[in-house]
Amino acid sequence: MMFDRTIRHCRQCGALVARRLPDDGDTKERAICTVCNTVHYENPLNVVGTVPHWGEQVLLCKRNIEPRKGKWTLPAGFMELGESTSEGAARETTEEAGAQFIMEDLFTVMSVPRVGQVHLYYRARLTSDVFDPGHETMEARLFKEDEIPWDELAFRTVKETLEHYFADRRAGHFSTHAFDIA
Amino acid sequence: MMFDRTIRHCRQCGALVARRLPDDGDTKERAICTVCNTVHYENPLNVVGTVPHWGEQVLLCKRNIEPRKGKWTLPAGFMELGESTSEGAARETTEEAGAQFIMEDLFTVMSVPRVGQVHLYYRARLTSDVFDPGHETMEARLFKEDEIPWDELAFRTVKETLEHYFADRRAGHFSTHAFDIA
Ligand SMILES: [Zn+2]
Ligand SMILES: [Zn+2]
Fold it and tell me: Domain map of chain A by residue range?
């Protein structure tokens, strides 16, 4: 989902906003309404997803939507109001792959400040190898490590998560990996 | 920071929005502009902070701002655009406590869907026991486990993080704890 998040008008009254320092000691310029003075904060978005695994294989989805249409991804999407990170990750896995699975532990937490996002992936144990992908996915299929289309992955966060997954699997121990992507 | 996040007017053109299903297959009602059709997504916010420790003591800050003015908290605040979770956690620790420290690993990741927030805390090793708190903090001081004002803590996420911190410390091993708070 790409969309223009720039704030031009006040969400409360519709008047134009101006970029300036608020009067409360805040040190960052904000979009402030020129009429009612509402301060509009702009914050990072969370992307939540899973590493669905079946034996030594991992489930990837071929994207049917922009951006990166035709590239392969782990099931993931924007976290919604009213859900937790793990609930959102499970929802995206159901929507994009039509998979059946049991949620496991938080696996990667990756900040991508350049685009204002934090990506959180959970491991998920598949309980079936039959998938019923939604309209956002062209194809959902299982890959062994040496079959992963490394040059056809949609996002850097997917590549990093898969690399950590197979490394931890070889080491026989999974932990949570938190890091920044410049 | 409490503020009304309800979207009444379009951020692009200022016209009124209506709550309805978008035309793209989305299954949730969104605030959609009645004039230019811009879809406004509302997403959870991240709160980032630290557990600053000095020997067997932990640093808490007495809040000088609402909500929970006068209650004790770990240094934390809303993550900003352009920073990572750990950069935001470090910034809040500097702003609220004026502490000197070295950032360590991600410690807790707590979803609070009822208020649309995710709280992420890092451990941070203090390199000085002298603090210079900002205007948001009445007092910053160190507490041993048996001195923690458990009934005077500002937030449930602070209590949960401190409980996990002292439990892991006793066990001699820190890991990342991810869970939901109903
Ligand atoms: Zn206004
Ligand atoms: Zn509009």
Answer: 1-42, 45-180
